[in-house]
Amino acid sequence: MAVTILAIESSCDDTSAAIIRDGYILSNLIAGQEIHKSYGGVVPELASRAHQVNIVPVVDQAFKKAGVSVSDVDAVAFTRGPGLLGSLLVGTSFAKGFALTRNIPLIEVNHLQAHVLVHFILREGSEKRVPGFPFLCLLVSGGHTRIILMKDHLSMEVIGNTIDDAAGEAFDKCGKFMGFTYPAGPAIDQLARSGNKKAFSFSKPSVRGLDFSFSGLKTSFLYFLRDRLKEDPGFIEKNRADLCASLQHTIVTILTGKLVKASIETGIKEVGIAGGVSANSGLRETVTAEAEKRGWNIFIPELSLTTDNAAMIGISGYYKYLRGEFTGQDVAPLARF
Fold first, then answer.
1. Distance (Å, rounded) from C-alpha 323 to C-alpha 313?
2. Which pLDDT tens digit goes with each residue over 13-39?
3. CA-CA distance, 25 to 7, in Å (whole number)?
4. Which of 51, 56, 250, 301 shows a CA-CA span of 20 to 30 A to 261?
């Protein structure tokens, strides 16, 4: 008998709803929030208010696109955390209300684990390679930078983590120094393609083990620009592409180096990337080159599944449904999971 999951994602500033049936995407709708660009980052209060406006129409469209009815849903999966508490509360409340009304199970999902599980989402009519276990995944986004060891679909061990800032935050903050609007990552990626990645050199942190650090890089980049602008006020404008290429090369080198180290130490060659920064062309190209050199079975998500989306919550909920891992109506969202 088919298992149909309604999935809700509202951890930050994207309101998303998806319908997953037996691991296959039937629909995956996302409503973004442009207002945050004016503030240089996500404003939590504004995000939660926008979720309240968006969630009903987004869910409605998800059902229409999937061609299923409310009565077809077997369970509701939702992001419990981590994320912005106000945003999570909107999604959690909607999911609880829907499940209570339909008298169906409620499934809480770890947002970070869900990012990794995008590699197991299937699409009707197309063949899909899926990782074997154990599986190493570099999860890299605006809020998180981790190396995760997956022993099965629901067993996640963090073996490397950032000790301060995430890689995505480094892209955004350094982009702000150069005059880019939030989020700066995509714009940096675009300009980097026409720049010289070896034009400028920025400090790389010395962090033991598999952990990361990007705070020092942000400081180094800021001081570098400050000193150059004293000499030439037009320095950024004249060197924008090279700055983007050099910054991106530095961040990608740090990320890839730790992923290579993790693969060597664990002996695992099932390797992937996930999260918003996994859309970065430099990172995708570099890990693909490493995979060819090191014999990895590499997994890179399609671009539509790199950012926050409900399909990843749905696939996580699907595997939890198969194991009977449900939660009660007293569940509360968690900013830190």
1. 16
2. 789 999 999 999 999 999 865 554 655
3. 11
4. 301
- Asked whether 6 and 313 are in contact (CB, 8 A), the reply is no
Residue 64 predicted with pLDDT over 70: yes
Its domain, for residue 101, covers 4-127+306-323
Structure tokens at 329: 């109506």
Q: Which residue has the tokens 């400090």?
A: 203
Query: What CATH number should be reported for the domain holding residue 159?
Result: 3.30.420.40
DSSP assignment of 102-171: HT--EEEEEHHHHHHGGGG-B-TTS------SSEEEEEE-SS-EEEEEEEETTEEEEEEEBSS--HHHHH
212 DSSP β-pair partners: 162
Tell me which H or E stretch contains 26. strand 24-31
Q: Report residue 44: phi and psi, to 5°.
A: -50, -45
Question: 280 near 252, Cβ under 8 Å?
Answer: yes
Alpha-carbon distance 184 to 170, whole Å? 10
Tell me: do 89 and 177 sit in the same domain. no
Asked whether 42 and 48 are in contact (CB, 8 A), the reply is no
Q: Which two tokens stand for residue 328?
A: 């009660």
Between these two residues, 204 and 78, which has the higher pLDDT value? 78
**Rounded (5°) CA angle 61-26-104:** 80
* The two three-digit tokens of residue 289, written as one number: 């080159």
Predicted TM-score (pTM) of the model is 0.93
Residue 152 CA: distances (Å) to CA of 134, 156, 239: 7, 8, 46
CB 78 within 8 A of CB 109: yes
Structure tokens given for 276: 């918003």
